[in-house]
Amino acid sequence: MVLVIHGPNLNLLGVREPDVYGLKTLSDINSSLRDIASKKGVELKIIQSNSEGEIIDVIQKAFHQDVDAIIINPAAYTHYSIAIRDALAMLDIPIIEVHLSNIYKREEFRHKSVISPVVTGQIAGFGANSYILALEQVIRLLNN
Ligand code: DQA
């Protein structure tokens, strides 16, 4: 099973700063991911949370569940949540960090990801397609 975690404020995609994050809603993105997953026969579990603790609980549960890979957009937590980083560091499965925007092209406080050192790879700057690229790559990794 591939677990997709959307962090804070991503529930408002489509409405929230559309010039930065695009016009697609979270449910548009989730539908595209579910389409790809079902075509490839991959089970997908998708969650969105505005709360750091809830995201950590979900990551911890991945320890005991049948999770083969994680795709995570930690949103603003990317830049300062050592707690989410530590939770991810416990896992020994592919983890892809995703951002809709190119965080390195934006304000300086977004240039640092405390999450990147514990993930397999990062995809940023392709809008909703960042998630699709991440899922395609996860499927490739799992098939290898
Ligand atoms: C984001 C980038 C973060 O800096 C920001 O706080 C977000 C979204 C992105 O997907 O581009 O909420 O993770």
Describe it.
The chain is an alpha/beta fold. It has a single domain, classed as Dehydroquinase, class II (Rossmann fold, 3-Layer(aba) Sandwich). Helices cover 38% and strands 17% of the residues. Helix 4 links the parallel strand 3 and strand 4 (95-99). The radius of gyration is 14 Å and the shape is globular. The structure holds 1,3,4-trihydroxy-5-OXO-cyclohexanecarboxylic acid. The site of 1,3,4-trihydroxy-5-OXO-cyclohexanecarboxylic acid has 10 residues, from loops. 1,3,4-trihydroxy-5-OXO-cyclohexanecarboxylic acid is lined by residues 9, 73, 75-76, 78, 99-101, 103, 110.
Bound molecules: 1,3,4-trihydroxy-5-OXO-cyclohexanecarboxylic acid
Number of helical regions: 5
CA-atom Rg in angstroms: 14 Å
CATH class: Alpha Beta
Would you identify the CATH architecture? 3-Layer(aba) Sandwich
Please state the average pLDDT score. 96
Largest β-sheet summary: 5 strands, parallel
Question: How many strands appear in the DSSP assignment?
Answer: 5
Beta-strand content: 15-25%
Protein name: 3-dehydroquinate dehydratase
Function: Catalyzes a trans-dehydration via an enolate intermediate.
Site (Transition state stabilizer): 16
Active site: 21 (proton acceptor), 99 (proton donor)
Write the layout of secondary structure elements.
Layout: E1 2-6, H1 18-21, H2 26-40, E2 44-48, H3 52-64, E3 69-73, H4 82-89, E4 95-99, E5 121-124, H5 129-143
The chain binds 1,3,4-trihydroxy-5-OXO-cyclohexanecarboxylic acid.
1,3,4-trihydroxy-5-OXO-cyclohexanecarboxylic acid is lined by residues 9, 73, 75-76, 78, 99-101, 103, 110.
Catalytic activity: 3-dehydroquinate = 3-dehydroshikimate + H2O
Subunit structure: Homododecamer.
Pathway: Metabolic intermediate biosynthesis; chorismate biosynthesis; chorismate from D-erythrose 4-phosphate and phosphoenolpyruvate: step 3/7
